[in-house]
Amino acid sequence: MKFASVLSVLGALTAVSAVQVNPLPAPRNITWGSSGPIQVRQLSLRDSHTSSVVSSAWLRAWNSITTLQWVPAAVEAPISNYPPFPTQTPESKTKRATGGIRYVEVQIKDSKADLQHGVDESYTLEVSKDSSSIKITSQTVWGALHAFTTLQQIIISDGKGGLIIEQPVKIQDAPLYPYRGIMVDTGRNFISVSKIFEQIDGMALSKLNVLHWHLDDSQSWPMQMRSYPEMTKDAYSPREIYTEADMRRVIAYARARGVRVIPEVDMPGHSASGWQQVDPEIVACANSWWSNDVWAYHTAVEPTPGQLDIIYNKTYEVVNNVYHDLSAIFADNWFHVGADELQPNCYNFSTHVTEWFAEDPSRTYHDLVQYWVDRAVPIFRSVGGHRRLMMWEDIVLSAENAHDVPKDIVMQTWNNGLDNINKLTTAGYDVVVSSSDFLYLDCGHGGFVTNDPRYNQNSNPDGGVNFNYGGNGGSWCGPYKTWQRIYDYDFTYNLTDAQASHILGAEAPLWSEQVDDISVSNQFWPRAAALGERVWSGNRDAAGHKRTTDLTQRLLNFREYLVANGVMANALVPKYCLKHPHACDLYKDQTAIS
Ligand SMILES: *[C@@H]1O[C@H](CO)[C@@H](O)[C@H](O)[C@H]1NC(C)=O
Ligand SMILES: *[C@@H]1O[C@H](CO)[C@@H](O)[C@H](O)[C@H]1NC(C)=O
Ligand SMILES: *[C@@H]1O[C@H](CO)[C@@H](O)[C@H](O)[C@H]1NC(C)=O
Ligand SMILES: *[C@@H]1O[C@H](CO)[C@@H](O)[C@H](O)[C@H]1NC(C)=O
Predict the structure, then answer these.
(1) For the domain that residue 112 is a member of, what is the CATH number?
(2) 62 assigned to some structural domain
(3) SS3 letters for 337-371?
(4) What positions does the domain Beta-hexosaminidase eukaryotic type N-terminal occupy (predicted)?
(5) For the CA of 298, the nearest atom of ligand 2
């Protein structure tokens, strides 16, 4: 099977005869013929199931096809013909005799399957030679949606107001991993509903299917709560609130595009805002000095401190009500309950905790964290047997871990790359990979904390190792993670098959200390699309070679496509590199990464 590049030109390059556009993510299997493009007329949907999800998705795809009149930016030349040459609109040697294509026929086996973890997302797409229809089959409506986002990328303009597609073409496609996500953080800075929609648009186009919504953090509480309306006193302003209707709108918008929304309320750490409005006593250390300047006393790893009081009984009453309010809004079976970065010193501010320790001197900090697990997890499970919980790995792997965390809780790993993946899968946990060295999209922007005297230096100390001179540039997880770093990550490296079967997929988080509506889209995109392909069809070709170089032109074109579709993706290269495939490669040898 040949994975042609974006626009692979067969035959004489001056007389363009084939327009094989490869979409992103690359399908698992795409085979093109070279009969020359066929005219695409006004396409009508033929869907025997009359699913409104499918018909609305088709209208969106068709609208994008007809309004954009897309032509990928560059003609891909075989590397032997280097240097390649710039864009040209495919010349029309288009077949007209047959009357062109008029229908999209969609056949879905099970149109009732709900959008939940593990739902079948496979599809096939076929244009037979000189056929009048494009045939799509899928197991579920969610697979059909993926077929449309593929199709809308391979129908292009003929440069004369018409549309064409190369034919015949046959695509058999299905994701490698059921969990393909990004994480948006609306606790550090508010992100508007319309900007969240924009991220979902990018996700749908790149076949990412999970939006992990880190709703709140110690700094702000933006969600309107039925049980405790007072919690939004800790939103940044009355405008920076998600009403129940807003949350439902996000969920519906995502669902219509095949994207699940998994909510996260981070507990018991990262908790102050909102909670403290209900009862200040359920939050420990909320008004302490976070004390990173005197580390021995630190109560948080970033301002502002606050952790739910694990021993105070009322904590669980409030947690129960907040959790049930949100569970009634978020339709997904999964719920993320946080559990990262607990700081022991914080609990020195709680009389409930200090008395609990004093009652029995044999008690350890691990016992305290276990107490949280034992009391909170039954609450989290109380919405019914369909609920699957997700936690950050800290609850199992940090210095402040619990003794015994149920093995059915999905662990999201973010530290120590392959090491922690190995530990968690050996222990038998299902794992979502978010290793910060590869997938944290906020890294590399320097520190955000102020009054930082480490910047007050006019010469380069320690040969550039120190703080913001070289080194990590003042970012704990620097440097910035480029699309090549993301795509190259072999997160199942060294795992046994049994361990690898515990990897559910991967997710790229974007923590928002230095992100809001202004930059959220260009921080996610197009880097998240590189992850999209990594988890959809992998980073290797059929022969097992890394195809990072092969992705280059797909991704550069896809960035243009995102922008055209209203997703404000960042530039990755001088446009020259987009228009001259491989001119900007570091190595001419295309097998450099193997
Ligand atoms: C890809 O699809 C073609 C046409 O259906 C088939 O002949 C080929 O075996 C498939 N390749 C793989 C790797 O599945
Ligand atoms: C918090 O309490 C623990 C246990 O009593 C003690 O070891 C630790 O030094 C205290 N931390 C601070 C910052 O006082
Ligand atoms: C807190 O709740 C536990 C479990 O329900 C109960 O055993 C205990 O007596 C309660 N403590 C207080 C101080 O009310
Ligand atoms: C892979 O496993 C080998 C053998 O156990 C070990 O020596 C090596 O360090 C591992 N590599 C990584 C990257 O974990």
Answers:
(1) 3.30.379.10
(2) yes
(3) EECCCCCHHHHHHCHHHHHHHHHCCCCCHHHHHHH
(4) 23-154
(5) 13
